[in-house]
C-alpha cells in the first residue's frame, strides 16, 4: 500500500541516521519539526503505523485538542482586551481625578490668596484702630488717676490763698495771709509730689500733647493782655521803662514753652506720628502768636527750635515718607484719572485728573508748612524735597503712560497727558511767584550746591537775574514727556486719517471734467470718509484734552494733514484742469474752513456757547420769525464768530457734541 509505505519510509529507524556521537559538534542539540513529528508518531502508534483505525483515532484526538486550544486562545484573546481597557480607563479616571484635585487646589489657593490680600487692608485698619483704642484706654486710665489725685489734693486751694496766678485786675486789695509760712510749706510739698508724678511713664506719654499746653499759653496771653496794657503798662511808662508789659509777659511764657517744645522734640525723633503732630501744633502756635497776639517778628518764637539739625532732618524724612505713601494711595485710587470738575465746564479747562490735583495740593501744603521758617537755607531743603517729589511723580506718570501707550486716544492716556500739562502749568506759575523768586535769590547768594551744582556760569547768571527758574530742569522733563505723548497721539490719529484718505489720494484727478462743464461744484465723494474722520477725531480730542493741549493737538494735526495731502495727493498724481479746480474747491471750501470753524465752535466759552445754542434752537423751532425785520437771522450771529461755511444745523450738532454743560 502506497500511503503506509510512505509513512514507513518517513519513519525509518533512528539507526539509519547518524548518531549524536557521530554528528558534528553542536548539531545534536538542534530541534527540527520533522524530529518532533517522528517522535510523536513513535510514541503514539508505536510500530503499528499501518493501522488505519489508530491513525484515525489519533487524527480525531488531535483535531479535538486543536479545537480546545483554539477556543482557549479565542477566550483569552477576548478576555484580555477588556481587562486592559478597564485598567486603562481606571488609570485615565485616576489621572483626571488627580488633575481635578490639583485644579481645585490651585483654585482654593488663589481664592485664599485673594481673600488674604483683600482682608489685609482691613487687618491693617483694625490694627490701627486697636492701637488707637489701646492709647485712648491708657489715656482714660491716666485721666481717672488725675481725677482721683485732684480729689485728694488741696493744691488749688493753696494757690487761691496765695492769690496766684494774677490774670485779671484784683477785685480787692491783696494782703499777705497770716499763715503764709504754713501755706508755703504745703505748696513745696505739693510741688515735690507733682514732680515725682511727672517721672511716671504714663505722665510722659500724656506730656506729649502739645496742643494742650500751647493752647493754654495762648489763652493766658489773651486773657492777660488787657490787664497788662491797662494796669501794668502805665506804671512802666511813668517809670521811663521803654518796654511793653504785654510783650514781656509773652516772652516769659514763651521761654517756658520753648523749653518744653525742645524737650519734646528731642524725645520724639523716633516717633514719626508724634513728631509730625508736634510740628503741626508748633506751626499753628506760631501763626496765632504773630497774628492774634501781635508778637513782634524780630523776637524769636518757636520755629527756630524746628531748625535744629536732628529735628530738621527728621522733619524732612517724615515729609518725604508721608508724601510717598500719599502718592501711592492717590495713584491707586478708583477715581485717580477722572476730574472732579468734569461736570463744571468753567472750572475744567485744564481737565486735570484727581491724582494730579491731589499731588499739587500735597506740594502746596508742604510749602505752607515751611514758608514761615526764619532760615532760607532750611526753606531751600524743603524746596529740594518738593522738586524730588515732583520728579518722582513724573516718573510714575511715565510708567503708567507706557502701559497705556497701546491706545493713545484712550481716556487714561489722555488723562495722563492732562496731568503732565497741569503740573507743568502750576510749576511754571510757581516760578513767577514772589516767595519762590526770593528762594531763588537765596540759593544764588548761598551758593546752594543742590540747586547750582550742575549749572554753568550762564545758567547761574540767569537765575541771579531772575530770568530763569528753580523749576527749569523739571519743566524741561515734563515738556519732553508732554511732547512725546502728544506726538504719539497725533501719529495714531494720522494713521487712521491716512487710511480713510486712500480713496481720495487715488482719485482720477487727470480725468475729471473741467469746471465749465459742471453747473455747480460739490465736495468729492472720496473725500467724505477722510473729512468725517477729521471731524470725529477733533471732537474727541476737544472732549478729552485741556484747552491748551487741544490747541496744540489741532495745530499739529493740521500740519500733518497738510503734509499728507501735499505728498500723497498733489505730488503723487497728475491733474487736469477740472482735477485741479476740484482739489482747490475741496481744500478751500470744505476741509480748511471745516476744521477752522469747527474749532471755533468747540472752543467757545460756556456762556457764549449757551447763548448760541439757545439762539439756534429758537431759530429751528420758530423759523417763521426770522423773516421779520426785528430779529436777525442766525447766520449773522455765526458770522460774528467767524463761521461762514457751517450751516446753523451743523453748528447745533457740534454744540450738542460738547463734553459737558452746566447742570448736566
UniProtKB/TrEMBL annotation:
Organism lineage string: Eukaryota, Metazoa, Chordata, Craniata, Vertebrata
A matching Pfam family: RINT1_TIP1
Family under the similarity heading: Belongs to the RINT1 family.
Species of the source: Scophthalmus maximus (Turbot)
Record's protein name: RAD50-interacting protein 1
Superkingdom classification of source: Eukaryota
Entry's Gene Ontology BP terms: endoplasmic reticulum to Golgi vesicle-mediated transport; regulation of ER to Golgi vesicle-mediated transport; retrograde vesicle-mediated transport, Golgi to endoplasmic reticulum
Cellular-component GO terms for this entry: Dsl1/NZR complex
Region span, Disordered: 1-31
Amino acid at each position: 500500500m502506497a500511503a503506509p509505505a510512505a509513512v514507513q519510509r518517513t519513519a525509518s529507524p533512528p539507526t539509519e541516521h547518524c548518531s549524536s556521537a557521530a554528528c558534528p559538534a553542536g548539531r545534536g542539540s538542534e530541534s527540527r519539526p520533522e524530529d518532533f513529528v517522528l517522535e510523536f508518531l513513535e510514541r503514539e502508534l508505536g510500530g503499528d503505523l499501518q493501522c488505519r483505525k489508530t491513525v484515525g483515532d489519533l487524527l480525531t484526538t488531535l483535531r479535538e485538542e486543536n479545537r480546545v486550544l483554539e477556543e482557549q486562545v479565542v477566550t483569552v484573546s477576548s478576555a484580555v482586551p477588556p481587562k486592559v481597557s478597564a485598567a486603562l480607563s481606571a488609570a485615565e479616571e485616576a489621572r483626571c481625578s488627580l488633575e481635578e484635585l490639583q485644579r481645585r487646589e490651585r483654585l482654593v489657593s488663589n481664592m485664599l490668596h485673594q481673600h488674604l490680600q483683600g482682608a489685609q487692608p482691613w487687618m491693617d485698619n483694625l490694627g490701627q484702630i486697636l492701637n488707637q483704642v489701646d492709647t485712648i484706654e491708657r489715656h482714660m486710665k491716666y485721666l481717672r488717676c488725675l481725677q482721683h489725685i485732684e480729689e485728694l489734693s488741696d493744691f488749688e486751694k493753696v494757690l487761691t490763698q496765695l492769690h496766684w496766678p494774677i490774670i485779671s485786675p484784683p477785685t480787692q486789695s491783696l494782703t499777705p495771709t497770716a499763715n503764709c509760712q504754713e501755706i508755703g510749706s504745703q505748696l513745696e510739698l505739693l510741688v515735690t509730689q507733682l514732680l515725682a508724678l511727672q517721672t511716671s511713664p504714663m505722665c510722659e506719654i500724656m506730656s506729649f500733647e502739645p496742643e494742650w499746653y500751647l493752647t493754654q499759653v495762648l489763652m493766658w496771653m489773651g486773657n492777660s493782655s488787657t490787664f497788662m496794657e491797662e494796669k501794668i503798662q502805665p506804671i512802666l511808662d511813668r517809670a521811663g521803662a521803654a518796654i511793653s508789659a504785654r510783650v514781656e509777659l509773652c516772652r516769659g511764657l514763651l521761654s517756658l514753652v520753648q523749653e518744653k517744645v525742645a524737650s519734646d522734640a528731642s524725645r520724639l525723633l523716633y516717633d514719626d506720628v508724634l513728631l509730625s503732630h508736634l510740628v503741626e501744633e508748633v506751626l499753628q502756635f506760631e501763626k496765632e502768636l504773630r497774628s492774634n497776639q501781635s508778637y513782634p517778628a524780630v523776637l524769636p518764637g518757636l520755629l527756630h527750635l524746628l531748625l535744629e539739625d536732628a529735628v530738621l532732618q527728621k522733619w524732612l524724612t517724615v515729609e518725604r515718607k508721608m508724601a510717598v505713601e500719599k502718592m501711592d494711595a492717590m495713584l491707586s485710587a478708583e477715581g485717580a484719572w477722572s476730574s472732579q470738575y468734569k461736570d463744571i465746564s468753567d472750572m475744567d479747562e485744564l481737565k486735570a485728573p484727581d491724582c494730579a490735583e491731589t499731588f499739587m495740593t500735597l506740594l502746596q501744603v508742604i510749602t505752607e508748612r515751611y514758608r514761615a521758617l526764619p532760615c532760607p537755607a532750611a526753606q531751600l531743603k524743603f524746596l529740594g524735597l518738593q522738586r524730588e517729589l515732583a520728579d518722582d511723580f513724573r516718573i510714575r506718570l511715565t510708567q503708567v503712560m507706557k502701559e497705556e501707550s497701546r491706545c493713545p486716544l484712550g481716556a487714561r492716556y489722555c488723562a495722563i497727558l492732562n496731568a503732565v500739562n497741569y503740573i507743568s502749568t502750576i510749576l511754571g506759575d510757581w516760578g513767577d511767584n514772589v516767595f519762590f523768586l526770593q528762594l531763588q535769590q537765596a540759593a544764588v547768594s548761598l551758593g546752594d550746591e543742590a540747586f547750582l551744582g550742575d549749572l554753568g556760569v550762564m545758567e547761574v547768571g540767569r537765575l541771579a537775574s531772575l530770568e530763569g527758574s528753580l523749576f527749569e530742569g523739571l519743566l524741561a522733563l515734563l515738556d519732553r514727556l508732554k511732547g512725546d505723548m502728544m506726538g504719539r497721539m497725533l501719529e495714531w490719529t494720522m494713521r487712521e486719517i491716512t487710511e480713510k484718505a486712500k480713496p481720495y489720494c487715488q482719485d482720477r484727478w487727470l480725468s475729471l471734467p473741467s469746471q465749465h462743464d459742471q453747473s455747480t461744484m460739490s465736495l468729492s465723494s472720496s473725500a467724505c470718509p477722510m473729512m468725517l474722520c477729521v471731524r470725529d477725531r477733533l471732537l474727541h480730542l476737544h472732549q478729552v484734552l485741556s484747552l491748551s493741549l487741544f490747541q496744540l493737538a489741532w495745530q499739529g494735526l493740521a500740519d500733518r494733514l497738510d503734509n499728507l495731502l501735499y505728498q500723497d495727493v498733489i505730488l503723487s498724481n497728475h491733474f487736469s484742469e477740472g482735477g485741479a479746480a476740484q482739489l482747490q474747491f475741496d481744500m478751500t471750501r470744505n476741509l480748511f474752513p471745516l476744521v477752522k470753524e469747527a474749532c471755533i465752535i468747540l472752543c467757545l466759552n460756556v456762556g457764549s456757547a449757551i447763548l448760541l445754542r439757545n439762539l439756534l434752537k429758537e431759530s429751528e423751532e420758530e423759523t417763521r420769525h426770522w423773516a421779520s425785520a426785528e430779529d436777525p437771522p442766525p447766520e449773522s450771529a455765526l458770522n460774528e464768530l467767524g463761521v461762514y461755511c457751517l450751516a446753523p444745523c451743523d453748528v447745533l450738532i457740534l454744540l450738542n457734541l460738547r463734553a459737558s454743560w452746566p447742570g448736566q
